[in-house]
Structure formats: structure tokens, C-alpha cells
Amino acid sequence: MQTPGTFPSFPRYQLPALVWAAVIFVLSSLPSTSFPDVEIFGIDKLVHFCIYMLLAVFAYRALRYQSLWPYASRHALLLTVGAVALYGATDEFHQLFVPGRQADVFDLMADAAGAIAYVAFVWLKREPPSRESAD
Predict the structure, then answer these.
(1) For residue 20, which of 46, 58, 77, 53 has the smallest C-alpha distance?
(2) Where on the phi/psi map is residue 5: left (φ > 0), alpha (ψ -120 to 50), or beta?
(3) Are 85 and 119 in contact (CB under 8 A)?
(4) What is the pLDDT of residues 83-108, one digit of tens each?
(5) Which of 62, 70, 48, 64 is nearest to 116 (CA)?
(6) Which among 87, 82, 78, 86 is positioned nearest to 120, based on CA atoms?
(7) pLDDT tens track for 21-40
(8) pLDDT digits 0-9 by tens, 30-82
(9) Residues 102/96, Cβ–Cβ less than 8 Å
(10) According to the 3-state scheme, what is the secondary structure of 40-86?
(11) Quick one: which of 91, 22, 28 has its CA closest to 58?
């Protein structure tokens, strides 16, 4: 049985993050005329929030279960927020060059909020260290 962080874990832990990032890139490369015009207030931000929350799920697993960079594994929660927010920023920049699309700081905020929400969930779900280990 392979332990997390070894190369055979790549398809299980790192590949989903790369595939989802590629899906986001492809979707954001489509001209705005490719999407239906939905007039529900905030639905666009909710979509961004959910898409980037899922990216945070995959990014956290990719960072947490790798052994090449122990620092990244130990600080996976913080690095997940940074990586997902940075990817959101590059995605917004990329949309400046897509016909009919534009960069939107509020989309970026929704992207980062999705990552922060997932990381907060994981952090709150963790068990606190036992008192015996502190002694």
C-alpha cells in the first residue's frame, strides 16, 4: 500500500486539482455569448464561490498529501487560500483577453471567499491537540 505523498498518489491527490484548474481555464476562455443570460441577483458570484471552493478542496488535498515539499504539506491550509486566490486573479486577468468577458474584482472576491470557506471548514473540523502532547 502506498503512503500519501509518493508518486503513485499523483492521480489520486494532485491530478484532480490540475484537471479542475484546466476546466476553469477552458470555461473562462469561452466568450460571454456562450453562457445563458441569467437575471438572478448574485447567481454569478455564487457560481464563482462554488467553483473555487471545489478548487480549494482539490488544492488542499494536493498540497496536504505530497512529500516533495514538507513545508507545503504542513501549511496546506494557508497555501490553499493563497494558491486558489492567485489562480482566481490570473483567471480574471485571462478574461481581459476573451471576447465579451471582463475582469471583475467581485468575481475574484467570490473566488477567494470559496477558498476561505473551505479552509475554515477544514480548520474548524480539526480536533484540537490533546493536553498530554503539550506537556
Answers:
(1) 58
(2) left
(3) no
(4) 999 999 999 999 999 998 889 999 99
(5) 48
(6) 78
(7) 999 999 999 987 655 566 66
(8) 987 655 566 666 788 999 999 999 999 999 999 998 877 888 889 999 999 99
(9) yes
(10) CCCHHHHHHHHHHHHHHHHHHHHHHCECCCHHHHHCHHHHHHHHHHH
(11) 22
If we measure between CA atoms, which residue out of 72, 70, 49 comes closest to residue 60?
Answer: 72
pLDDT at position 113, please? 98
The three three-digit cell numbers of residue 64, written as one number = 496536504
Closest CA to 86 of 114, 123, 111: 111
pTM of the model: 0.82
Host H or E run for residue 131: helix 131-134
Residues in the chain: 135
108 is written with which cell numbers?
475574484
Judge contact between 121 and 114, C-beta under 8 A.
Answer: no
Whether residue 114 contacts residue 84, with contact meaning beta carbons closer than 8 Å, is answered with yes
